[in-house]
Amino acid sequence: MEHLRGPSPLANPGARHPELLGPAHRDGFGDEAADRVWDVCVIGSGASGAVAADRLVRQGLDVLMVEEGFRLAGHVDLDEAETLCRQAVARDDEGNWTDEGWPWTTSNLGGGTVFYGGASFRYQPFDFDPGSLIDTGGTEVRWPYTLADLAPYYEVLERRLGVCGGPPAEGSNGARHSRGPAHEPSAAARVLYAAGESLGYRPFPTPLAINRDPYEGRAGCDRVSLCVSHACPTGAKGDVVAVFLAPLAAHPNFMLRTGVRAVRLEQDRAGEVSALRCLDRVSGQTREVRARAFVLACNAIQTAALLLRSRTTYSPSGVGNHSGLVGRGLCVKLSEYVSGVVQAAPEVLADPDVHKGPFSTVAFLDHYLDEDCPTGVGGLIYESKRDRAPKLVRDALELRIETILSDHPNLDNRVGLSRYVDEDGLPAIVLDYRTDPRDQARLRYMTGRCERLLRAAGANGIRHKATGFAQGSSHLHGTCRAGDDPARSVVDGWGRVHSADNVYVVDGSFMPYPGGLNPTLTIQAHALRTSKAVASHLAAPHAAHV
């Protein structure tokens, strides 16, 4: 087999953090008993995996978490972190194949939450049952549960993450929320608020998992950065290393092993998984991890690839691939930046904090459902500041907004395995994604709404910036679709794989419809809900033999 070009995750040892989180954490495996059977093995330490591990440990279960990446040193920014990530084969904008696809957010302890801006939206009621407007030619888009079912888990996570801001009545039927007072709007957001209101919009503070004020031992935001290109310097942001993993690192029921890559799941009998074959990236040795249950939290691309690599006598097409749907239905969300500049008072431009965080303090859902938009489904518009100082406008105030919208699930958009291999000798990942023409039309409509908002603000020099979402993005969904019918889905409503009773998917893979908002909080709420099912399964008498 041919090798795929790309960096090794060990290419820059200086990016690794010299300190471990606590006694439960180490890089690679040590001399711990190789024949130990864990209650749960959690694969992936990002947004969903950390939430799942936290809940399962608190339920009294013995949990092993394996993470391919390492803890990043504090000086590592997003650009450097991305150089540590393995790439994929993907189509470019002209439909040609390239080996520069992007199957990660980032590959490190805490995943993309180390660098995300903290946007923490609850999904809208429409997102759970969009079939009245979303035509996929028969592919199921209705979730197997409702917003009301997820609301209690949103509640818990908003408190744990310190979410501030959001719509005044987010949720369904007046559902309560646990969000704190919003962050103060930025200078740009104040202009956007006024422009939106002049158009009849209902702007609201972007909900952010960033403590505005000190809370439960965590610092408040000092607005020194946007948190989207560097780790939060104060610990105010709700990245999962700070909120969930660091407190677990001294717990006797928890073990965290970084620098350990999940290679494949193994089976001793039909209907369940017995072990995970791992590669210790520190020693170069492979090792088998046995557990009663396995929780997959790798992201919607990496989880699908792991299942497809897991070909056994009992699952010849890969564990969970009984319906042939593993890897199919990849959704990445469409997005685009639109920016312009306005004149501002000298004292505003002279303020040293004018370009500092948070990255977003105003959002608009007025076109989320819009009969004038093709298909009637629009998307989100929100402030999305940049913090690359050389690119900022010095003599005017920049207004930079982003629109995000769902893509139509299409089973032909998929994750697959290549004939090329990576540096570990494993099949490289293939991303075969084409944007639906209907979605291209919707994106044009929404960027037109962005231009209209900027013009209402008096902006000049309006520019567009593409995000390259079709080659992979930070919003990944749909490759292990949830549903009630095993013939048309991979997992059930609790995230359990239909054909492997002790395997659960907690990342964005499960989403039958991707929704049109930043998905992190919803993925985490699903992970919290699924953890309840995992704990119940392991407590049941029939689970004792697993």
Automatic annotation (TrEMBL):
Keyword Isomerase: no
Keyword RNA-binding part of the UniProt annotation: no
InterPro entries: FAD/NAD-bd_sf, GMC_OxRdtase_N, GMC_OxRtase_C, P2Ox-like
Transmembrane intervals: none
Swiss-Prot/TrEMBL keywords: Antibiotic biosynthesis, FAD, Flavoprotein, Oxidoreductase
Domain Glucose-methanol-choline oxidoreductase N-terminal: 148-332
GO biological process, one term: antibiotic biosynthetic process
Pathways involved: Antibiotic biosynthesis
Family, similarity comment: Belongs to the GMC oxidoreductase family.
Gene3D superfamilies: FAD/NAD(P)-binding domain (3.50.50.60)
A Pfam family recorded for this sequence: GMC_oxred_C
Chain spans, region Disordered: 1-24
Residue intervals of the Glucose-methanol-choline oxidoreductase C-terminal domain: 409-527
Cofactor(s) demanded: FAD
Extent of the signal sequence: none
Gene Ontology molecular function: any one: flavin adenine dinucleotide binding
Name the record gives this protein: Glucose-methanol-choline oxidoreductase
